[in-house]
Amino acid sequence: CEASQSQASLEEILRNADMALYQAKRSGRNRVVDALDLARELAAIAPEIPLLWCGWSAHAPYVQAVAEATIPLVHPRMLLVCGELEASLPAVLEAIRSGIDEPERLVERSGSLTYFEPGAKEWRGEGRFERVADLTRLAAVWGDDESMEAHAGGAGWIELSRGCRYACGFCVACSMGDGDVRSHSPGRIRQEIEAASRRGVKLFGLLAAAVNYDLESLRAAAGALGGAGAGERRVAGTVHARFASDERLELMSAMQWETMIVGLQTTTAEAQRLMRRGEQRESFAAAIERLASLCVPEVELILGLPGDTAAGFEQTVRFALTLPASVSIYRLRLDPWASFMLNREALGLDADFGHEGRVTSTPTFTVDEIDAAERWIRELPRGAWTHRARQLVLDGVPLRRERG
């Protein structure tokens, strides 16, 4: 029973279903508050039924931080199922099906589990991030059973790989691999794209890093999404500037790019060091010039990075505005499993977990300076626009739209 799609009350659902699947109503980080609210309601009406919290937000330090700022943890049998669900969830469901449903016994069966003991006010169990060792054993996401449909506007995701060679401090994806990339086979990639197309997908979001690292994955995607048979198929994805080589550009040019995100984040040396990734201005600018032949690249910046300063952030923004791109600026948010989240105390990061974990200050970037930087960004488009950038966006809201 999909509880979020049902018109019945929670009591009716739990009385009539063997298992209820609830999908948070809101998107992004706000879904964590939705899940806490559901857990509180279930604790009142059915505290004896195990509640499994799955997905990217199933991370004890993160859930506790949000709970302390919003809705307390009260459910006595709420367990976090950590990691990739194909690796962690089946064994948990099998244990519950066999009659083992006490949290203290379940955590003995799986290292991926952890639960909060309200009485002791502490987490029990290892809560290890489990990963799928062999992607070839996974069932297809897009198939012919009609269980998947395109999102509104014809959008759909195609997973090319899992993991990332970088370990950027702000990124949740780094938990999916210790510097390694696990790619799906070219055959599977082509089959998934064709199956998704039959389900109405026209805008294909490419997940994730293989489009940069693995030429065979990129070649498979380009063959299925480009060429004479592509029709209305459009592409969105993340491209690393340092991989904009001739061979990759030729393959990428076969596809119709609607959105191409290119992360810069910062040009401040200390912020790059703490983030564990840096781009050189000259090479980054050269890559953007080349990528601009395919579409208007979206250069991403982050406001509030540890190690950054007010002056350094302004220099980064002014550099990005010289590029033939759309410039998107986001306030730093602390995400589950990301090293900035895990090391926030050592880094001296203050964050508001009642508002998506937004970083409010760092040792080198005060709250007043961050607020002033945001006001400066908002004021930039109000005068004469002399910059080369085609668009300026702050936290997803366009401040200046593309000219012409």
Describe this entry's structure for a reader:
This protein has 15 helices and 16 strands. The chain is globular. The protein has helices at residues 10-16, 31-45, 60-69, 85-97, 103-109, 186-198, 210-213, 215-225, 246-252, 269-275, 281-291, 310-320, 339-342, 344-347, 367-379, and strands at 51-53, 78-81, 113-117, 122-124, 155-159, 161-163, 181-183, 203-207, 234-238, 257-265, 298-303, 326-331, 350-352, 358-361, 391-394, 397-400. An eight-stranded mixed β-sheet has the order 5-8-9-10-11-12-15-16. A four-stranded mixed β-sheet has the order 1-2-3-4, with helices on both faces. It is of the alpha/beta class and 404 residues long. The chain starts with 9 loop residues before the first helix and ends with a strand.
Structural class by sheet pairing and helices: alpha/beta
Q: What order do the strands of the largest sheet run in, or round the barrel if closed? A: 5-8-9-10-11-12-15-16
**Could you give a short account of the major beta sheet?**
8 strands, mixed
Span between termini: 49 Å
Given as residue ranges, the uncertain stretches (5+ residues, pLDDT < 50) are none
Annotation field: number of helices: 15
Q: Based on CA inertia axes, which overall geometry fits? A: globular
